[in-house]
């Protein structure tokens, strides 16, 4: 059997594990740990339930039956050094827990003998109070508390445990006082205790509020420091490098202008756009296309876009046609700047690419030149849009692109 077939496959998060006797975390036969995992509860709760049932004898019978009829969890741990090391670390802890549970069982047996049977209500009030105290003690464990507080589900679980523990303690105390006929005498003491606690709360509350506010102020300061560090790193990596390049190429005004525009566009994108927007919406995608053409050909391209919408297949083809128009203007117009205007309307998207360059005769383009006919006119027509080119020799060129919008469901 190969290694892949020998590995255990963990059950899915929403799948109830099979009822098996556990190997990891067991104290005796793995019945309580396996049943707790199957029910999705803490093993401590199952073990305490078995002990409470064992006072009357039924718990032992149920445990023995489950031990013989429930199969053992399949695990191949002999060849896993990490698992053997973990088992060695758990060994001492498991022994101490076993001793604690044995002591708890002995205490329950003593209570059974002291109160004369499981049908004595006073016995069960004592058991409830003790069980609630145990749950509250476990809830106060720092490691488990941190784990429970990491998610909403964990917080709800922790609050439910704390509430159950408090309820059991209150029921146990009140029941004990009632059967001992001491509830009337306890009222004065409880009134004094609550009054004392209220006074202490009034004294301590300002100090606690001050600590909370100080913690919040420190947290805000850490956030501000992190933002300053991020801004400083970005300025160092981009703006300062661009300024250095501008100083080295000060004799070339066109290159200085190009570097300044590239840095301006990058800084605006970093300040005002999310990284995913450049690929999913029209306005940043059009600016990205213009920036790529400008960086490749060195001709400044001014972009103005009004409105925005998600990019679909048709608009993606429109952006590719607009890119081809920008490339043609950069290569053949002989102008110092190119203007791109985009407008997103409810029914369609418009893009205009204009230059004040040499212009050309559209009818004089050879048949084998596909830059205009195939990449602009043909592409827009194939995707349900339209393209119109207005040009003449010496009068510049304007490429108009129109693409209907697909209604968003």
TrEMBL record:
Keywords from the named record: Kinase, Membrane, Transferase, Transmembrane, Transmembrane helix, Two-component regulatory system
Pfam family, one: PspC
Domain of life from the UniProt record: Bacteria
Span of domain Phage shock protein PspC N-terminal: 18-73
Gene3D superfamilies: Histidine kinase-like ATPase, C-terminal domain (3.30.565.10)
Transmembrane region(s): 48-70, 98-115, 121-137, 158-179, 191-212
Keyword Secreted belongs to the record: no
Keyword hit for Transmembrane helix: yes
GO biological process entries: phosphorelay signal transduction system
UniProt cross-references to PANTHER family, sorted A to Z: NITRATE/NITRITE SENSOR PROTEIN NARX-RELATED, OXYGEN SENSOR HISTIDINE KINASE NREB
Protein name (record): Signal transduction histidine kinase
């Amino acid at each position: 059997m190969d290694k892949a077939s020998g590995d255990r496959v963990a059950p899915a998060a929403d799948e109830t594990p099979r009822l098996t006797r556990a190997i990891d975390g067991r104290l005796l036969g793995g019945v309580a740990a396996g049943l707790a995992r199957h029910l999705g509860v803490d093993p401590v709760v199952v073990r305490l339930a078995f002990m409470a049932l064992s006072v009357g004898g039924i718990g032992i019978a149920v445990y023995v039956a489950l031990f013989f009829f429930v199969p053992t969890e399949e695990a191949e741990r002999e060849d896993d050094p990490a698992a053997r090391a973990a088992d060695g670390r758990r060994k001492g802890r498991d022994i101490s827990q076993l001793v604690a549970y044995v002591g708890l069982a002995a205490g329950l047996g003593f209570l059974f003998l002291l109160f004369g049977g499981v049908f004595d209500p006073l016995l069960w009030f004592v058991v409830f109070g003790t069980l609630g105290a145990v749950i509250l003690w476990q809830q106060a464990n720092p490691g488990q508390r941190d784990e429970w507080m990491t998610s909403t589900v964990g917080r709800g679980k922790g609050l439910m445990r704390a509430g159950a523990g408090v309820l059991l303690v209150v029921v146990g105390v009140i029941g004990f006082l009632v059967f001992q006929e001491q509830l009337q005498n306890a009222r004065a003491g409880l009134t004094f205790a609550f009054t004392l606690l209220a006074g202490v709360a009034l004294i301590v509350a300002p100090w606690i509020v001050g600590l909370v506010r100080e913690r919040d102020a420190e947290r805000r300061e850490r956030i501000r420091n992190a933002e300053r560090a991020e801004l400083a790193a970005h300025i160092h990596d981009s703006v300062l490098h661009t300024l250095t390049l501008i100083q080295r190429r000060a004799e070339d005004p066109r290159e200085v202008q190009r570097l300044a525009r590239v840095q301006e566009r990058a800084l605006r994108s970093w300040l005002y756009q999310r990284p995913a927007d450049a690929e999913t919406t029209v306005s940043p995608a059009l600016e990205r296309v213009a920036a790529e053409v400008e960086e490749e050909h060195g001709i400044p391209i001014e972009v103005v876009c009004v409105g925005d919408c998600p990019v679909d297949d048709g608009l993606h083809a429109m952006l590719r046609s607009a890119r081809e128009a920008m490339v043609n203007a950069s290569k053949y117009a002989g102008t110092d700047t190119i203007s791109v205007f985009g407008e997103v309307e409810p029914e369609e998207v418009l893009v205009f690419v204009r230059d004040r360059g040499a212009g050309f005769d559209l009818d004089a383009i050879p048949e084998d030149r596909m830059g205009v006919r195939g990449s602009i006119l043909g592409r827009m027509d194939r995707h349900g849009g339209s393209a119109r080119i207005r040009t003449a020799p010496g009068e510049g060129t304007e490429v108009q692109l129109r693409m209907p919008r697909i209604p968003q469901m």
